[in-house]
Write a structure and sequence with these properties.
Elements lengths: L9 H10 L9 H14 L3 E7 L3 E8 L5 E3 L4 H5 L6 E3 L12 H4 L6 E8 L5 E9 L7 H30 L2 E7 L4 E5 L1 H7 L3 H5 L3 H4 L1 H5 L3 H10 L4 E9 L5 E10 L7 E8 L1 H19 L4 E5 L9 E5 L1 H7 L3 H4 L14 H12 L4 E8 L5 E12 L5 E10 L1 H29 L3 H16 L2 E7 L5 E4 L13 H7 L5 E2 L5 E6 L8 E6 L6 H68 L5 H31 L8 E4 H13 L4 E5 L5 E4 L1 H17 L7 E8 L2 E7 L21 H5 L8 H11 L3 E7 L3 E9 L10 E6 L8 H8 L2 E5 L3 H10 L4 E5 L7 H8 L4 E6 L11 E4 L4 H15 L13
Parallel strand pairs: 23-25, 29-30, 29-31, 31-32, 32-33
Antiparallel strand pairs: 1-2, 1-6, 2-3, 4-5, 5-6, 7-8, 7-11, 9-10, 10-11, 12-13, 12-16, 14-15, 15-16, 17-18, 17-21, 19-20, 20-21, 22-24, 25-26, 26-28, 27-28
Bound molecules: adenosine-5'-diphosphate (ADP).
Length: 915
């Protein structure tokens, strides 16, 4: 026997062999099929796939031979791998190399051998496919070709298996072959060895239960493996702990199945190291626990493919199910839109979806619905869940129930609205200065505020309460109503048993006489309702007090007005009656003064009597004029007046006592004016000029045309007027200190009267003066007095009070207006027919006719100011509006506005033609 030669690149050949990881692996049906085929084709009893290891040949498949391996030095194959092609020994007994081989000499009795090397693609022969016979023989050419072809096929399988192994090795998946009987590891993949820290040899000596202590402890493995043995098609899935060589352990998942077609029971074990996935799982578990524990509803949904497709809920936490009143089955798998309803603003959700699609978070508030159809307000934050490819297919939504906040907000808004309403009603209450109107305003206001009906109860003189529509009424039938009585003694609002009838005490003035406001409606009163009622009651109490005060004031004022009237009448009568006797006195004094029988001294006294009586007469005239003025009776008698002629006439009369220089810039200067009144003004000014220049200095009168009218200037060189007193002299009874000091007599009426007359004409009067140097009074009169002066406006009033005691009328008179008071729209139209008014002030609710009709008939005759609680839609045609209650300055502003419009400052409304 000769030892076998070793190939030149033995180490690399061995490396190639080991790479296939075939040595000591279980037999496989596939390879057995190859040896069967080779044996059949070559008609040989023995066929082997032999792998030549360093010291042995190991048989991957052995047909017709019982041993699994032989030492290398007796192996025919060790020779076969040295050559390129088929290695054939026809009769081993005749071959020197094999004659002494135990396979030949022993019980196997091999005579014939033919083998082809199995070469890796790199050219290393790792083993052979061979056939053997116990008789000497040869192969046919066809058999040789077939043997070589099968050899190639086998190598291809080796290769395929190697790439598979590479794949496994690169993965974390561990692969084992385990003998079910001995529970020993026959094979372990790279990953398995790496993870466990053992070499294959070491692993082969370790029993599986030692490697997987978790399984053994539970006593299950043997049992489970036996189970597997009994049901070959089954696969076991187990979880366990694997123990490394160094004693550390890691979690592992095992898939065990029986390799088919074995005589030995061999299990293929695929193990996955769960360390990482278990950590991840643990993290996920923690997170899910946190999400589950969260109080806020949380859901995860899969985005619909298009905006039209619904998003489907794939996860929801407990809080979400609780919120919806559903179990997990009722929620998971349903479209999110199942929880929308009529009040859900879907546009917001579309916007949210778009944000999420774009990979951004979004926060929206919307209305969501529960399973039972009830709704809640939610503030939801949606966050996209981006996958590894960067796409968003899921999003998570965290909801927050903000119903309470929203409701609180809504309630606040409601309260606000209510307060606004109360304020508006309070305005009406305060504007109602009439006892009936006030009660009406309260009843209407209560109805507006809380709905239902309302009634006011007033205390009866003889005890008990009586329903009333008038604060001042005291009679009536008392009611026996426990709720009213209860309310009268209660500090807070009270309700009857149904909660639909409320009563609230209204504090009275002084001795605490209280009213009770009662309201009845179809549904129960809420606390805010009662609060509102109470508030209304408080306002009413103040307004009622105002009415009382106003009534008292009004009656006092009436008394004063009446007294004033009596006084004026008396003065007028006296003044009038004075004039007759005074004329007689003057006349006779003049006659006597001319009588030669009296001496010079007596005649001088008679002259004094005459001039004093004349002064008295003019005083009487002024007083009469003043009295008329105060009655607004000073109507102008307009006609054409030539100012120059009129002034010349006055000058002629005065020229007797003082030289007067008259100059005029034209021959004639016609105006539309009241001649007698204008003459009174000129007389007064020239008279003053003479009177206050006691040195006899000449007086100068100039009449000039000025734009839009005429100017009359009266100039003297007399005592002048101290600067500080100049402005006041046009007031009633005003006299300058120097005039008094010099003992120059006067009443202080003249300039007041003059100013009034000039302003009635729409003109002006001014003075320039220097003390001790003289004064110049200038009067300007416009061409036509038809347009009245701003000083005295004529106003016709139709007020809520509806009578002559109207506060507005009094206030306007105080402010210098001539005021006529109408009691209805009809009467007002009659007034406008009869006289000219600058402005009509109208409370449209008092018109007693449609406001449009009134406007159509009145608008072209006067400026129209509407007084009302609020601007109403039908304000067309009115020139101005003033909201009640108003301050007088507001009313003046409105009047000014109306005057501006009526005078054409801005186009007045369309007026019905033909009136
Ligand atoms: P009366 O002359 O009766 O006092 P008027 O109203 O006419 O009343 O004048 C008011 C006052 O104005 C006079 O008292 C006088 O002090 C002052 N006054 C009027 N005209 C002149 C004038 N031409 N020169 C100086 N003072 C004058």
């Amino acid at each position: 026997m000769t030892s076998t030669a070793i190939p030149a690149s033995e180490e690399r050949r061995l490396a190639a062999l080991y790479e296939y990881e075939l040595l000591d692996t279980p037999a496989e049906e596939l390879f057995d099929a190859f040896t069967r085929l080779a044996a059949q084709l070559c008609d040989a009893p023995i066929s082997l796939i032999s792998l030549v290891d360093r010291d042995r040949q190991w048989l991957k498949s052995a047909l017709g031979m019982s041993r699994a391996e032989t030492p290398r030095d007796i192996a025919f194959c060790a020779h076969a791998i040295l050559g390129d092609g088929l290695f054939e020994v026809d009769d081993a007994t005749l071959d020197r190399r094999f004659a002494g081989n135990p396979l030949v000499t022993g019980p196997d009795g091999v005579r014939f051998y033919a083998g082809v090397p199995l070469r890796s693609p790199d050219g290393y022969a790792v083993g052979t496919l061979c056939v053997m016979d116990r008789r000497a023989r040869g192969l046919t050419t066809g058999q040789r070709v077939a043997l070589a072809a099968i050899g190639d096929a086998i190598v291809e399988q080796f290769e395929a298996r190697r790439s598979l192994l590479r794949l496994f090795d690169s993965s974390q998946t561990e692969l084992y072959h385990v003998d079910l009987v001995s529970e020993r590891i026959l094979f372990a993949s790279d990953a398995a060895r790496r993870n466990l820290g053992y070499t294959l040899e070491e692993l082969r000596r370790v029993a599986l239960p030692e490697l997987l202590p978790g399984l053994e402890r539970e006593g299950r493995l043997a049992e489970r493996l036996a189970e597997l043995d009994a049901n070959p098609g089954r696969r076991l899935n187990l979880r366990s702990i694997a123990r490394r060589k160094d004693g550390t352990a890691y979690p592992i998942e095992l898939r065990i199945e029986l390799l088919p077609g074995r005589r030995r029971r061999i299990a293929l074990v695929v193990a996955t190291d769960l360390t990482e996935s278990e950590q991840a799982q643990q993290r996920i578990n923690l997170l899910s626990a946190a999400i589950e524990a969260a109080q806020d509803p949380i859901l995860i949904a899969k985005l619909g493919a298009t905006p039209q497709d619904a998003s489907i809920i794939v996860y929801a936490n407990d809080a979400f199910m609780r919120q919806k009143g559903l179990s997990a089955e009722g929620v998971i798998g349903r479209p999110t839109s199942d929880f929308f309803g009529p009040q859900t603003d879907r546009s917001k959700l579309v916007a949210m979806r778009n944000e999420v699609m774009a990979g951004r978070s979004a926060r929206v508030e919307y209305v969501s619905y529960r399973a039972d159809g009830t709704l809640y307000h939610t503030e939801s934050t949606a966050k996209p869940l981006v996958d590894e490819s960067g796409r968003t297919s899921y999003f998570v939504v965290v909801q927050r129930d903000i119903t309470e906040q929203v409701m609180r907000g809504a309630q606040l808004a409601l309260q606000n609205e209510r307060l606004t309403a109360i304020t508006s009603i309070a305005r009406t209450l305060f504007a109602s200065l009439d006892p009936t109107l006030l009660v009406e305003a309260l009843v209407t206001g209560t109805r507006e505020l809380v709905g239902g009906t309302a009634a006011l109860y007033a205390p009866h003189e003889r005890g008990g309460f009586v329903a009333t529509t008038d604060l001042t009424a005291t009679g009536g039938v008392t009611v026996d109503d426990p709720l009213i009585s209860l309310a009268a003694h209660s500090e807070v609002s009270v309700l009857d048993d149904s909660g639909r009838r409320a009563a609230v005490r209204i504090p009275g003035s002084g001795t605490g006489t209280a009213y009770v406001l009662e309201s009845v409606r179809d549904d129960a009163f809420s606390t805010p309702d009662l609060f509102a009622l109470g508030l209304l009651g408080q306002y009413f109490a103040v307004a009622a007090r105002n009415v009382e005060l106003y009534q008292e004031l009004a009656s006092r004022r009436d008394a004063v007005v009446e007294l004033n009237q009596v006084k004026n009448d008396l003065i007028a009568m006296l003044a009038h009656d004075f004039k007759g006797p005074l004329t007689t006195i003057v006349g006779f004094a003049d006659v006597l003064a001319d009588d030669e029988r009296f001496d010079a001294e007596s005649r001088q006294y008679l002259g004094l009597i005459s001039s004093s009586a004349m002064r008295l007469a003019s005083l009487a005239t002024d007083t009469l004029a003043l009295s008329r003025l105060e009655h607004n009776e000073l109507a102008l008698q307009l006609g054409e007046v030539d100012v120059i002629a009129m002034v010349r006439d006055v000058v002629r009369v005065f020229s007797v006592t003082r030289p007067i220089d008259l100059r005029a810039t034209a021959i004639a200067m016609p105006l539309i004016a009241d001649e007698a009144r204008l003459r009174q003004v000129v007389e007064n000014l020239i008279g003053n000029a003479i009177k206050y220049s006691p040195g006899g200095e000449a007086v100068e009168v100039v009449v000039r045309a000025r734009s839009g009218g005429a100017e009359i200037a009266v100039r003297d060189r007399g005592i002048g007027i101290p600067e500080a007193e100049r402005g006041k002299l046009f007031g009633r009874f005003a006299r300058a200190s120097n005039a008094r000091a010099l003992g120059i007599g006067g009443t202080g009426f003249g300039l007041y009267l003059s100013k009034t007359i000039v302003e009635l004409h729409g003109g002006t009067i001014t003075v320039e003066s220097g003390e001790g140097q003289g004064s110049t009074f200038r009067v300007f009169v416009p061409v036509s007095a038809a347009k009245r002066a701003p000083g005295l406006r004529r106003v016709v009033l139709l007020d809520a009070d509806g009578d002559a005691r109207s506060y507005v009328a009094h206030a306007l008179r105080d402010d210098g207006y001539a005021v006529a008071v109408a009691t209805s729209g009809e009467e007002m139209l009659r007034f406008l027919d009869e006289a000219q008014f600058d402005v009509a002030l109208v409370d449209a609710e008092r018109l007693g006719m449609p406001p449009e009709r009134f406007v159509a008939e009145a608008a072209h005759r006067t400026g129209l100011v509407r007084m009302g609680l609020r601007m109403s839609a039908d304000h067309d045609g009115w020139d101005a509006f003033v909201a009640k209650p108003f301050l007088m300055k507001d009313l003046h502003t409105a009047i000014g506005e109306a005057l501006g419009r009526a005078n054409g400052a801005s186009p007045k409304k369309a007026v019905t033609a033909g009136r």
